[in-house]
Every structure is written in structure tokens, then in C-alpha cells.
Design brief:
alpha/beta, 2-enoyl-CoA Hydratase, Chain A, domain 1, seven-stranded mixed sheet, about 10% strand
Length: about 300
């Protein structure tokens, strides 16, 4: 009796059919570039209206770098700056993840990547921008008000008790002292040098221009930023990624988690709604002040 051979689908064919049931980003050979949006003023604004901080975005960054089949990670930045500490910590975390996962980081600047926003942009292996984007502002700024004449006119006496000669330095209700201003500017110069070193380390030989031109706190539009080496090219996320990884490249947006408790407290995602910060203030004085400060930071760059 002759044996009858029954053809069975081979393992490769079976795997191929099973793979068809998987989400596109999990299929073999599919180019994936996860996208993370980093928007808003950097650092704490008020307890109920947080800005962009490492604590707020760390999990989102980790999720993006953990995506299977990722060819790179894209960061979309729209920030006028803020806390130098938070800016540098976010920069360092991005570079750490890029080294661990061996993935290139592509940065796309929207309206503005200035001051701390540009510091974060420097975490990219390449920086792309729009011709109308604003980049730079590599400097340090701090400000206050002087209320001593106002409180004198309305009959208020300032009473302040300290232990430590400089504990009340730059108190806005006391007359300004030159030596205290000099001390503040010394600290600002130290922070500025840290910022300059980070930019030089990141951009290297791509920078075109003398230090006393690039690092004065000035900022530039996109085309000039590319000429100066602050950015690598003009380009938007969709076109750039398709040209590099093919028309079928997948670009999933990795959004921060929004839990029930976060919603009940009225929190927003880090950096969300910065330009609409006057909405829903509920008459809280500190919220109003933080909203006005946020507006003022954006307004420096024409937004």
C-alpha cells in the first residue's frame, strides 16, 4: 500500500499568517518611530498646574524607548524654557535611554525651542525645525519686583527676622543692594557656563559662530538656526521620517498616562495647555499669577 503524502503549511507560512493578526507595529520588518511631545514651560508652576518636569515625563520617555521594532525615537518640542535643573535632567535622561537602547533621537521643533527648551532639544542626534521656528536663547534670566516704596506709601512696615547674614538676600520688600545683585549674577554666570558646555558637547563642530555671538541669550528663526548649526535642517516630522524610513513608517504618539486621581485634582499632562493657561482659573490668586508668568515667558518669543 503506497503512502499518501499530505501537504501541510510550513512553519514560515504559518508564522506569516499569524503575524497578520498582530498590530502593525509588532510585525517583523515594520519601521516604527515612536513620538513623544514635550510642550510647555519647564519646571513647577503651581502645585495644581505643573509644568514639564522629569518626574512627569520619565515614564513616557521610557515607554517610547521600549517600543519593539523602533528605528529611532522622535521628540516634538514646543517650549520657551524654564527651570535649568529640570531641563538638564530631562536632557540627561533622554541621552541615557538613547545609549541604553542604542536608538537615535530625532528632534522636531514646532513654534519654539528656546532657553531650557533648546537645552532639551540638544538631546537629539539631529534637530529639525520649521523656517518660522524660534531656537536659541542660550542664557540665564531671573527677575523680581521691588515693593519697598509701595508698602511705605500705604503704611505697611516690613518686619523680617533671620539667622544668617544673607538669608534675606534680594527680598522684594527691602531696598536692593548692589552686593546682593552681584552675588546673583555670579550664580547666573555659573549656570550659563553649564548651559554653554552642554550645547558645545551636543552640537560640536556643527556650531558656526563665536561664543560671544551664539551664547548671548539671542534667538533666531529656523533658517538662520540651521546656518549657525543650532539645528541640522528644515523639515517636519511626517516628511522627514517617511523619507528616511519609508512611506509605511509607523509613528505612534506615546502620551503620558492620565489616572483617575490626576483628573480629580484637575491636573493636566506635563506642559499641556500652556498657551491656554488662563482657562479655568477658578479665581485662585496663585493660579492667576502662574498663568500670567507663563504668558510672559511665551510672549518673549512672540507667542
Amino acid at each position: 500500500m503506497s503512502e499518501q503524502r499530505i501537504d501541510r503549511p510550513g512553519l514560515p507560512g504559518l508564522l506569516e499568517r499569524l503575524e497578520g493578526w498582530l498590530p502593525a507595529r509588532l510585525r517583523r520588518g515594520m519601521a516604527v518611530v515612536p513620538v513623544v511631545r514635550l510642550s510647555g514651560v519647564i519646571g513647577a508652576v503651581t502645585p495644581l498646574r505643573p509644568g514639564m518636569t522629569l518626574t512627569g515625563i520619565a515614564k513616557t520617555l521610557e515607554r517610547a524607548f521600549a517600543i519593539r521594532n523602533a528605528k529611532a525615537v522622535a521628540l516634538v518640542i514646543n517650549s520657551p524654557g524654564g527651570s535649568p535643573v529640570q531641563s538638564r535632567q530631562i536632557y540627561l535622561r533622554i541621552r541615557q535611554l538613547a545609549a541604553e537602547k542604542k536608538l537615535p533621537v530625532l528632534v522636531f521643533v514646532e513654534d519654539v525651542a528656546a532657553s531650557g527648551g533648546y537645552m532639551i532639544a540638544c538631546a537629539g542626534d539631529e534637530i529639525f525645525c520649521d523656517p518660522s521656528s524660534i531656537l536659541g536663547s542660550i542664557g540665564v534670566v531671573g527677575g523680581s519686583f521691588g515693593f519697598q516704596e509701595l508698602i511705605r506709601k500705604i503704611g505697611v512696615e516690613r518686619r523680617l527676622y533671620t539667622a544668617g547674614e544673607h538669608k534675606a538676600m534680594l527680598d522684594p520688600f527691602l531696598p536692593e543692594k548692589p552686593e546682593e545683585v552681584a552675588r546673583l549674577k555670579t550664580i547666573q554666570r555659573e549656570i550659563h557656563e553649564i548651559f554653554i558646555a552642554l550645547v558645545k558637547q551636543s552640537r560640536g563642530a556643527r556650531l558656526k559662530g563665536a561664543d560671544d555671538f551664539l551664547f548671548t541669550g539671542e534667538y533666531w528663526a529656523g533658517e538662520t538656526s540651521v546656518t549657525l548649526g543650532l539645528a541640522d535642517g528644515i523639515g517636519d516630522l511626517r516628511s522627514t521620517l517617511r523619507a528616511r524610513y519609508g512611506e509605511k513608517v509607523l509613528t505612534p504618539v506615546i502620551a503620558p498616562a492620565s489616572g483617575l486621581l490626576s483628573g480629580l485634582l484637575g491636573r493636566r499632562s506635563p506642559g499641556a495647555g500652556s498657551l491656554g493657561a488662563l482657562d479655568g482659573l477658578g479665581g485662585l490668586p496663585d493660579d492667576l499669577i502662574s498663568a500670567l508668568e507663563t504668558r510672559a515667558i511665551w510672549a518673549k518669543f512672540g507667542f
